[in-house]
Amino acid sequence: MDKKKKYTGVELMRDAPVGTAIIRLALPMMITMIAQALYNMTDVFFIGQTNDSNMVAAVALASPLFMLSQALGNVFATGGANYISRTLGAKKYDEARHASVVSFYTAFGVGVVLTIILLLFKTPILRLIGVSDATFEHTDDYFTVVSIFMAFATTGAVMSSQVRSEGETKKAMFIMLVGIVLNVIFDPIFILTLDMGTVGAAWATVAGQCVSYFLGLKYFASKHSLLSIHPRDFKPNKEMMRQILSIGIPAGISNIIMSVSNILGNRVLVGYGDYVVAGNGVFMRVAGLFFMFIFAIVMGYQPFAGYNYGANQHDRLRKGFLITVALSTGMCIVGAIILRIFGDSFIWFFIDDHNTIEAGTAILKVFIYGLPFIGAQVTLMVTFQALGKPIRAMIITIGRQLLFYVPLLFILNELFGFDGYTWTQPAADFLTTGIAIALGMSLLKSMRGKEDDEIHKLEV
Questions:
Q1: Nearest Cα residue to 309 out of 63, 90, 107
Q2: pLDDT exceeds 60 at position 452
Q3: What's the pLDDT tens digit per position in 98-140?
Q4: Terminal-to-terminal C-alpha distance of the chain
Q5: Distance of CA 242 to CAs 83, 193, 278, 375, Å?
Q6: Cβ(56)–Cβ(228) under 8 Å?
Q7: How far is Cα 34 from Cα 127, in angstroms, rounded to an integer?
Q8: 207, 150 Cβ separation under 8 angstroms
Q9: 349: exposed, middle or buried (C-beta count within 10 Å: 0-12, 13-18, 19+)?
């Protein structure tokens, strides 16, 4: 088959050569993820130009709270998208359309409830996450604005995943890029020109999110999508909700635990000084850039895996899995080498403060030892999600934070101080990848081609 042929989203997942399909699905996601990483870095970069480490620390402290909105949105983004891909593969188009509407409106309602809770309990929440008197005003400004628009963030994540679930990764890329570009444009205007500080960063963020949100609505209201956002298609059923929640809840819980883990990490770092919190915040943005490359490949593979599983094309599934593991692991190794050589320059790029640079670089230099293990870990986790195997996916997604990161955070910090803290994440990644491979052995065996039917027998 001609590799240059133009495939529709479903045709790409069904008919294209496996390597071609994975790459074509992943490339738009890679562009989007790079832009997303730049978007995440933009606030810190322009705030860093003020050389005020308290403002940088404020954004770092507030960020885990907004991972909470992503967590709740991901219940329906991840669960819904995986279910939709499988139903499209099985040619159950009405069920896919109903699932998209149920996921959309439920996520919006969750976002509204979350906004109310965050604003009602704002001050105790900020104190709980470790905000000091020096950073309180800056964190409060950022927190308040982003909290008000939480429903747009949760449903935006759902729409993006649903566009990808039908193989239209280019359209998903366009919708997200418009919001990201607007955020990049508004950041220097609001933060530096208008001297709005962290509240300017927040308004730039929500402006981009809202524009992407309405572009998503326009796409689903058009005739180009197999899915829908029309209220008349809001038709939940027991099996649909079971499938969405069985995958979505573990994914959401994982993000919640990750958010809590970051909060706990920041509370530990506050004991070493606000500049260390700022350094860690910059490190997370730099590391996030390399994570985005990995996630782009894996997220491109996700709808491919779900569709071909639903269509009983297990040989294509196996080939896609192996290609994705190879590509993601290669990206991890390249990323580790780049960060080892240029890590301190990346940190310096964001803020010219000696103490902050020193702290961020110390964390980054140790982090790279765990990076090569992440590709296989994430690919296995997404494969279990795509195949509707919630318990195995949950063990990987939740286990990294709950089983390893949190206990190691306190043990290593207590034994070795700040040096112990820096080893927490790579140690957790190494151990989690070991568990992921152990859980995936039976799946890998069943995907060899001779035992395709055995995949369906893996209940968890």
A1: 90
A2: no
A3: 888 888 888 888 888 888 988 888 888 777 766 667 777 777 7
A4: 36
A5: 10, 50, 41, 29
A6: no
A7: 33
A8: no
A9: middle
* Tokens read off for 414: 């207590």
**Residue 191 token pair:** 């933060």
| 421 closest CA partner among 289, 287, 277 | 277
* Inter-residue contact 440 to 386 (CB < 8 Å): no
Contact 148, 119 (CB under 8 A): yes
Which residue reads 């509707």 in tokens? 388
CB-hemisphere CA count at 13 Å for 410? 8
pLDDT, position 24: 80
Q: Specify whether the CB–CB gap between 132 and 271 falls below 8 A.
A: no
Per-residue DSSP letter, 5: P
**Closest to 362 measured CA to CA, from 421, 427, 416, 290:** 421
Name the CA dihedral angle for 102, 104, 110, 111, rounded to a multiple of 10 degrees.
-170
Residue 259 tokens, joined: 């958010």
Q: Which amino acid is at 454?
A: E
Both tokens of residue 385?
A: 């999600």
Side-chain-side CA neighbours of residue 430 (13 Å): 11
Q: Kindly tell me the sign of the dihedral angle through the C-alpha atoms of 14, 16, 20, 25.
A: negative
pLDDT per residue as tens digits for the range 164-219: 777 777 777 788 788 888 888 887 888 777 877 777 888 888 888 888 888 888 88
Chain length of the chain = 460
Query: How many CA atoms lie within 13 Å of 219's alpha carbon, on the beta-carbon side?
Result: 25
Domain positions in the chain: 9-457
Which amino acid type is present at position 389? K
SS3 236: coil
CA–CA gap between residue 458 and residue 446 (Å, rounded) = 9
- Which amino acid is present at 235? K
* pTM value > 0.70: no
DSSP 313-382: -HHHHHHHHHHHHHHHHHHHHHHHHHHHHHHHHHHHHH---HHHHHHHHHHHHHHTTTGGGHHHHHHHHH
